[in-house]
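Predict the 3D structure for this chain.
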Amino acid sequence: MQTRTKRQFGIGLSYPDEIIGIGVGPGDRPLEGMGAGILPPTRKIGDEGQRLTICGIDLELAIAPGETPDHLVVWYPEKKVLFSGDNFYRSFPNLYAIRGTEYRDFDTWADTMDQLMAFEPEVLAPGHTKAVLGATQIKDVLTDYRDAIRHVVRETREGMDAGLTMDQLAHSVKLPPELAEKPHLREYYGCVSYAVRAYFVGTVGWFDGNSTSLNALAPDDEAHRFIKLAGGAVSVFRAVEKAQSDGDYQWALQLVDRLIYANQDKPRATALKAQILRDHARDQVNCPTRHYYLQCAKELSQ
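Done. Predicted structure below.
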């Protein structure tokens, strides 16, 4: 996973030309060591949580699963400060990380928002982004977070029950306008379409319900057949360049991938893909997506 982690966080990209942010923080922060592994815990906390006193300050550690199943929050009751870790930050939650993660239980994460609100904090201190001040404001943002997650779950479930495929749902499920317009739910870090795909695979597996998908052709086989149908590699190269000039970057990428799979003038096709990725990256609001495009473009150019 190290390669994918570096791509998601833009490790190796230059600041400020390429890495302008990491989704939940500024792009000029140190990234040394990210993706290199983990530090072992020095203390283990049971499911019941734990109370402790540090430097005369009484704190409560509470199990609050969300971004990870073993997530903890810290409650400072005297000052009504809740340190929420990565269960809340000022972005649509990263329900699926493109670096690759185990399934993050959406329903549990949404339920944890109710748990955090039950503390009735007056200061909410996330692990990333600025603190939220005021009991009313905190309740509002946590409610929005909970409702956004539950909306994605509900819409995806209903679509699955109606027989829609994962790709269809990824393109159709959106946050309602009253949530999408909230600054703390913009898709800077998490992405709704990635969340939909993750929920689909995490709950029913890779098969999207379309019988054609059960035994799809190998990518190189499909590419050769597609290129022949399109009139040959020259025609496909022409279509790629037309799509790129029109700003239709996703279509350009899907076309050029077939040239690469089929080994049709692969150096030219690879260089073309690198440039399309750079062009596509400029349009991205979601930082992990931008980083992934730019980092892959660099790798293709080496």
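The chain has eleven helices and six strands.
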